[in-house]
UniProtKB/TrEMBL annotation:
This protein's UniProt keywords: Membrane, Transmembrane, Transmembrane helix
Lineage of the organism: Bacteria, Bacteria division WOR-3
Transmembrane intervals: 143-167, 195-220, 232-254, 407-426, 490-507, 513-534, 546-567
Classification via InterPro entries: TPR-like_helical_dom_sf
Signal peptide interval: none
Species whose genome carries this gene: candidate division WOR-3 bacterium
Designated name of the protein: Tetratricopeptide repeat protein
Length: 573
């Protein structure tokens, strides 16, 4: 554990590594331990403050670190989140998380950690502070959210399909069992055949295989409306597979399995990572090298891009900034003027203003600074400002990879869905079963008894025939019908209690049932399938199950209320 944390801390910066390996670290440690120095003496030195707090857990060092403006540092933020996980009290956890936010306010882990702790403590102010974090501006956080939202939606759509198929199976299973030969044999044989048709559930115990088996059976039994809803579910599942194709590249990026993540890390995090540039990402790597202080390699790459014709605003401005730092003022001014003519961003105006200020041209510098402010740009820095690659550049980098058809969702899983969809349009269909007008039992043409244009099963026909008076027969009919309604109502409420909205599908209120069921399953999926989440490499966060428990409870509560109210209204009719 200590080695893991040390590895993260060593990625703080080159200066931190050098400090750890120098005799100065021992001198400072002894001086602070013996109180020859005060922590306040190093209030402006983040390297020593971090060194001291990592060895002693000094809260005073943490308070000084919060006041220092530092470049975004994902690795130190991860260390603080780990400390928050190990902390004993919620107050200590929150203090650690607040410092983690200071180092990297865009990390999605900080958002979930703070939100989970706030929900646990029922602290509305902490919830507001969590949602105030600018996580949506960070490319890594965007990929995390997009990937997991698509996967959760796909899982929810699939589970809706599974529930729909099972509900329709409950309705059609007795009829399918009765039509399965031999048709004659009595009620006991129908029970045996029903158990045979339930064998996929017993044998496979896999939701996907169960869905495929029963969907394949039902497309030859269901009526047109029911079949259309199954087709819609299959089409949406296929669309979700298509949408998941870019997610495969996103997952490779998040898991740090590719070259693109190293480029992103080099640009956004404080590290000494060295990457060999390729033809696609030279501009991004040049920016990263400049942030690391490797001006010579950055200058070489920017000049290569510039003279090869890649003269976009970022390349020209950032190349001019290097000339500015090398005191090649004439070349820098020429490039700044070119950048001003090429675009309408404020950075070239600001940088040229700094150059004029350096050459004691105060009036021209003031004019250029005002032009920069008109373009919504201002800075307190006394050095030229680079144009940083944006999320659009990173999306182009990720989408430049070839799509992988066998990623998280395998292509082979989609083939049976396409086959079932095609088969559903074939004109072949099993003849619909007959139903007893009194008890509702499914019967075939050989078993039915027709009395005065009324279809009866053999059991009801025998009961009514044995009645000697018309009043007795009427009482028997009412008793059988009441028993039928009681059974139907029991199944209806039991199914809806299992999944809100499923009961509405059972009574053919498909649209309302699907909408309610989709939202409640959407809340259940993260709890039922926690492994579905794609967690980026280096994921360290306080468990966020309280977030999904709260969401699931709210969705389930409203879904139960709405669905049972609709069922009650339909039952009254």
């Amino acid at each position: 554990m200590a080695i893991f944390l040390l590895c993260l801390m060593c990625q703080f910066s080159i200066q931190y590594k050098q400090f750890l390996n120098s005799p100065e670290s021992e001198v400072v440690f002894k001086g602070l331990t013996r109180k020859e120095y005060r922590v306040a003496d190093f209030a402006d030195n983040p390297v020593i403050l971090w060194f001291w707090r990592s060895n002693t857990g000094s809260a005073e060092a943490d308070s000084f670190l919060k006041k220092i403006h530092l470049r975004k540092n994902f690795h130190l933020s991860a260390v603080l989140r780990w400390e928050a996980k190990e902390a004993q009290t919620d107050e200590e956890k929150m203090n650690k998380l607040n410092l983690a936010v200071h180092f990297d306010s865009t990390a999605i882990e900080n958002f979930f950690s703070i939100l989970s702790l706030a929900i646990k403590n029922r602290d509305l102010q902490q919830i507001k502070s969590a949602f105030a974090l600018p996580i949506l501006t960070d490319f890594r956080s965007q990929l995390f959210l997009i990937s997991n939202i698509i996967l959760i939606l796909a899982a929810a759509v699939f589970m809706c399909g599974v529930v729909y198929v099972l509900i329709k199976t409950i309705h059609y299973l007795p009829a399918a069992a009765h039509r399965l030969g031999p048709e004659k044999g009595g009620q006991m044989l129908d029970v045996v055949k029903t158990i045979v048709l339930l064998s996929p559930i017993i044998i496979f115990r896999n939701l996907y295989l169960i869905f495929i088996c029963y969907a394949l059976l039902l497309i030859f039994i269901m009526d047109r409306q029911e079949k259309n809803w199954l087709r819609l579910n299959l089409i949406v599942l296929i669309i979700m597979f298509v949408l998941s194709l870019p997610v495969n590249s996103f997952i490779s990026f998040l898991k740090e399995h590719n070259y693109n993540y190293q480029v992103y890390e080099m640009i956004n995090y404080d590290n000494s990572l060295t990457i060999e540039p390729n033809g696609k990402n030279r501009e991004l790597i040049a920016y990263g090298l400049k942030q690391q202080g490797n001006l010579e390699r950055a200058l070489s790459l920017y000049e290569e891009l510039y003279y090869s014709g890649n003269r976009n605003l970022a390349v020209v401005n950032n190349l001019a900034n290097i000339y500015f730092l090398y005191n090649e003022d004439a070349r820098a001014e020429s490039l700044y003027n070119y950048a001003i003519l090429s675009g309408n961003r404020g950075e070239p105006y600001f940088n040229l203003g700094l150059l004029k200020l350096k050459n004691i041209e105060y009036s021209e510098s003031s004019r250029l600074m005002e032009e920069a402010r008109k373009r919504n740009f201002s800075s307190l820095l006394k050095e030229p400002v680079d144009i940083k690659p944006g999320n659009t550049d990173f999306y182009k980098m990720v989408f430049s990879e070839k799509l992988k058809f066998n990623g998280l969702i395998k292509f082979i899983y989609v083939v049976p869905l396409v086959i079932i969809l095609i088969l559903s349009f074939l004109p072949f269909k099993f003849t619909p079963p007959f139903y007893c007008a009194t008890c509702g039992k499914p019967i075939c043409g050989r078993c039915l008894k027709e009395v005065d244009d009324e279809i009866l099963c053999e059991s009801c026909f025998t009961k009514f025939k044995s009645a000697k008076r018309a009043e007795t027969e009427e009482e028997l009919r009412r008793a059988v019908s009441k028993s039928r309604r009681r059974l139907r109502r029991f199944i209806l409420y039991a199914v809806n209690l299992f999944i809100p909205g499923a009961g509405l599908i059972y009574i053919n209120r498909h649209l309302t049932g699907f909408i309610i069921m989709f939202f409640v399953i959407l809340g259940y999926v993260p709890l039922l399938f926690p492994r579905i989440f794609v967690k980026p490499a280096g994921w360290i966060a306080i468990p966020f199950s309280p977030i999904f428990i709260l969401i699931a409870m709210i969705l389930a509560l409203f879904s139960y209320i709405i669905s049972f109210l609709i069922i009650k209204e339909c039952d009254a009719d």
